[in-house]
Design goal:
By secondary structure, this protein is α/β, with parallel strands linked by helices. It has three domains: 80 residues, Beta-grasp domain (Ubiquitin-like (UB roll)), CATH 3.10.20; 89 residues, Translation factors (Elongation Factor Tu (Ef-tu), domain 3), CATH 2.40.30; 123 residues, 3-Layer(aba) Sandwich (Rossmann fold), CATH 3.40.50. The protein is built from seven helices and 17 strands. Bound molecules: flavin-adenine dinucleotide and FE2/S2 (inorganic) cluster (FES). Flavin-adenine dinucleotide (FAD) binds next to strand 9, strand 10 and helix 3.
């Protein structure tokens, strides 16, 4: 069995264990969240050995070149020396500025930060609770001198972090957050390219960020946002988006409902299906997909088959930790 060495201590990996599993079972303090390669907060480095490529997926080239990898995605095949556990040093404080209900399950959380923070709307941050629990949330707003971040957080039944945000957090509380991450954001340089934004639930948060960024940067091509949920209560900002679509000639908005009750003004069906029916040919379009991981997997495949280039399909899967002990 491969052996991990960290700070002059060695840990034996059991068969089929990830580096994260081994470190946690030996009580090593390492930050982690999704355990599925999505949040990047279990970042770690192997100065001497090149990590398996699967464990480096989604990392920046500069990080890959320095042998950084995701501990939750690495099943070691050889002994590894480890350094710089987690991104602990990269967390800093932010204060809760306000909390507002967006729909029965979702709140808008505004955080105010003091440190310098560079972000692109649509990227995500990792939030950390005092006990070390970490979860990722996407940024819905544009950077501004007020130094605020807008997050949309849906309360999941028995969701450790989302229930805490909904039931405990109040104005003035301090939370820790990590540098923004992710590559789901507006890319300038092709202002005429059609943009198709597809999201479920709080997937609207990054899509709203991308939309506002595109409009702010003078995107002139058509932009179409499809936002879906099972029923009307699962959506939010319907009137706000309709009003924006009335004001902006190049912006269209479709609210989609996959349940049985579909009132006037909504499209019947799942958001990605309605979008793919509306645009059966996607050659030349840039597609942004945010929300449920299954929806994203299916749509990535279908968008590619409909002609979208892989490099033009950007996705943020809101993976939920599969381990209820964390
Ligand atoms: C890149 C990224 C960006 C994200 N952005 C956002 C965001 O902007 N807004 C947001 O709200 N979340 C977002 N998430 C998800 C978020 O990070 C958390 O996973 C989520 O809030 C649940 O955490 P929790 O601790 O409350 O739930 P946990 O305690 O981790 O567990 C949730 C439990 O609910 C179950 N479950 C999973 N999905 C559902 C579901 N759809 N309905 C009911 N139960 C379910 C799981 O099986 C699990 O048992 C994002 C995730 C990633 C990776
Ligand atoms: S990427 Fe490893 S815990 Fe999220």
């Amino acid at each position: 069995m491969p052996k991990l060495t960290l700070n002059n201590k060695s840990y034996q990996c059991e068969s089929d264990e990830t580096v994260l599993d081994t470190l946690l079972s030996n009580n090593v303090d390492i930050a982690y969240g999704c355990r599925q390669g999505g949040c990047q907060c279990c970042l770690i480095r192997s100065p001497k050995q090149v990590p398996p490529s699967d464990a480096q997926k989604g990392l920046k080239e500069t990080q890959q070149a320095q042998n950084y990898f995701l501990a939750c995605m690495c099943k070691p095949t050889e002994d590894m020396d480890l350094a710089e556990v987690g991104a602990e040093g990269l967390f800093f404080d932010a204060t809760v500025d306000s909390l507002k209900s967006l729909n029965p399950d979702t709140i808008e959380l505004i955080l105010e930060y003091k440190d310098e923070l560079t972000f692109k709307p649509g990227q995500f941050i990792n939030l950390k609770r005092e006990d070390g629990l970490v979860r990722s949330y996407s940024i819905a707003n544009l950077p501004s001198p007020e130094k605020k971040l807008e997050l949309h957080i849906r309360k999941l039944p028995n969701g450790a972090f989302s229930e805490w945000v909904h039931d405990y957090l109040e104005e003035g509380h301090v939370v820790s957050l990590q540098e923004p991450n992710g590559d789901c954001f507006y890319i300038s340089g092709k202002p005429e390219q059609p943009l198709i934004l597809i999201g479920t639930g709080t997937g609207l948060a990054p899509l709203a960020g991308i939309l506002h960024d595109a409009l702010m940067q003078g995107h002139s091509g058509p932009i179409h946002l499809f936002h879906g949920s099972r029923d009307v209560d699962g959506l939010y900002w319907v009137d706000k988006m309709k009003e924006l679509a009335n004001r902006k000639e190049n912006f269209s908005y479709t609210a989609c409902l996959s349940g049985d009750n579909v009132p006037d003004g909504y499209s019947a069906g799942r958001a990605h299906q309605v979008a793919l029916d509306t645009y059966p040919k996607l050659d030349g379009s840039r597609i942004f997909l945010c929300g449920h991981p299954e929806m994203i997997k299916e749509t990535q495949k279908k968008a590619y088959l409909a002609g979208a280039s892989l490099k033009d399909i950007h996705a943020d899967a809101f993976t939920v930790s599969s381990d209820k002990t964390n």
